[in-house]
From TrEMBL:
GO cellular component, one term: cytoplasm
Gene3D superfamilies: 1.10.150.530, Aldolase class I
Subcellular location, record wording: Cytoplasm
Catalytic activity: adenosine(2503) in 23S rRNA + 2 reduced [2Fe-2S]-[ferredoxin] + 2 S-adenosyl-L-methionine = 2-methyladenosine(2503) in 23S rRNA + 5'-deoxyadenosine + L-methionine + 2 oxidized [2Fe-2S]-[ferredoxin] + S-adenosyl-L-homocysteine; adenosine(37) in tRNA + 2 reduced [2Fe-2S]-[ferredoxin] + 2 S-adenosyl-L-methionine = 2-methyladenosine(37) in tRNA + 5'-deoxyadenosine + L-methionine + 2 oxidized [2Fe-2S]-[ferredoxin] + S-adenosyl-L-homocysteine
Miscellaneous comment as given in the Swiss-Prot or TrEMBL entry: Reaction proceeds by a ping-pong mechanism involving intermediate methylation of a conserved cysteine residue.
Residue stretches making up the Radical SAM core domain: 98-334
GO biological process assignments: rRNA base methylation; tRNA methylation
Catalytic residues, chain numbering: 90 (proton acceptor), 339 (s-methylcysteine intermediate)
Keyword annotations from UniProtKB, A to Z: 4Fe-4S, Cytoplasm, Disulfide bond, Iron, Iron-sulfur, Metal-binding, Methyltransferase, rRNA processing, S-adenosyl-L-methionine, Transferase, tRNA processing
Lineage, highest ranks first: Bacteria, Bacillati, Bacillota, Clostridia, Halanaerobiales
Protein name: Probable dual-specificity RNA methyltransferase RlmN
Native organism: Halanaerobium hydrogeniformans
Gene name tied to this protein: rlmN
Binding positions ([4Fe-4S] cluster): 112, 116, 119
EC code: 2.1.1.192
Length: 347
């Protein structure tokens, strides 16, 4: 059975027209889903009973069940949702009041199968890809939770697909979700306000470049040479740094967009002055920005962030050599909602 939250507006209108309903009815249903955050046909007030019955008989409407919610002092909120099959996923709301931004960090898989040495999500491996509807409903649930008197006030302004899983390993479902979220008649979040993170799936980066949707790309780099990256990110054995950077440069040339490289600084792993210099040489001349992320604690993994002096030195080496760099502001680590901390269980 199809899910209403997996259909674009034109697809929904076409299907209902084929079933004998006027085109405007499909538009009304779409508006209830995305302009009002309603997931139950009974609450769609201007929809006739005949159409409600047809929808109930022929479609599902994904409605994630909230199992737990925790809020950090900085306003970050982490959600644990249960899926229809009993699996759990997490998502995060990130407020930036100084810039009036409201961001959501969204998962694309149940778990992860890529085994990066510093990330909690992959500890128990990959269960499955999320459906388009399960990806979209995370956004809808966060939007509903932060809304005040009416849905989408305040409105989510940014989406980062940096939650559980490797987004590009679920390419088709992800991109369908992106198109619906971006739709003027959907959540109307601009492509340039969304970012897809990847460990470096080269064929999918090329597909993303060919689409030229103008969506942001963030590459989880974390090492400036193949020897170290092989050790901490097994995907590098399949797509090495040369292959990865070739695909990234192609993406930049085709889209005209700057790419972000994420670099988690881990004490005595990838934080030495020599590695900072290697990173400068690796990225020199590429239209990019480096986001340095001091490692967040994960009890099951033997990693910790470097002392501040080491972080500052690494940052300065990049900055002094013309690499655009920033130090990620730590948000939500107290509730295990920060980079690398998402799992499938209550904190």
């Amino acid at each position: 059975m199809k899910d209403l939250k997996e259909l674009k507006r034109n697809e929904l209108i076409k299907e209902l027209k084929n079933a004998g309903f006027p085109a405007y009815r499909g538009e009304q249903v779409f508006n209830w889903l995305y302009k009002n955050g309603i997931s139950e046909t009974e609450k769609m007030k201007n929809i006739p009973g005949e159409l409600k019955e047809y929808l109930n008989d022929n479609y599902e409407i994904t409605d994630l069940k909230e199992k737990a919610k925790s809020q950090a002092a900085d306003g970050t909120i982490k959600y644990l949702w249960e899926l229809k099959d009993g699996e759990n996923i997490e998502g995060v709301y990130l407020p930036f009041p100084e810039s009036a931004r409201h961001s959501a960090c969204i998962s694309t898989q149940v778990g992860c199968g890529l085994g990066c040495s510093f990330c909690a999500t992959g500890i128990n491996g990959l269960e499955r890809n999320l459906t388009t509807a399960e990806i979209i409903d995370q956004v809808l649930k966060i939007q509903a939770d932060i809304s005040r008197d009416e849905f989408a006030e305040p409105r989510l302004s940014n989406i980062v697909f940096m939650g559980m899983g490797e987004p590009l390993a679920n390419f088709e479902n992800l991109m369908q979700a992106v198109e619906i979220i971006n739709s003027d008649n959907g959540l109307n979040i601009g492509m340039r306000k969304m970012t897809i993170s990847t460990v470096g799936l080269v064929p999918e980066i090329k597909k993303l470049a060919d689409r030229n949707d103008q969506i942001g790309l963030a590459v989880s780099l974390h090492a400036p040479n193949d020897r170290l990256r092989n050790k901490i990110m097994p995907i590098n054995k399949k797509y090495n740094l040369n292959q990865l950077l070739t695909a990234v440069i192609d993406y930049i040339e085709k889209t005209g967009r700057r790419v972000t490289f994420e670099y988690v600084l881990m004490d005595s792993v990838n934080d030495s002055p020599e590695l900072a210099v290697q990173l400068v040489e690796l990225l020199r001349g590429i239209n990019c920005h480096v986001n340095l992320i001091p490692a967040n604690p994960v009890p099951e993994l033997n990693i910790k962030k470097p002392v501040q002096k080491v972080i500052d030195s690494f940052y300065s080496t990049l900055d002094n050599n013309g690499i655009q760099v920033s130090l990620r502001r730590e948000m939500g680590s107290q509730i295990d909602a920060a980079c690398g901390q998402l799992k499938r269980q209550e904190s």
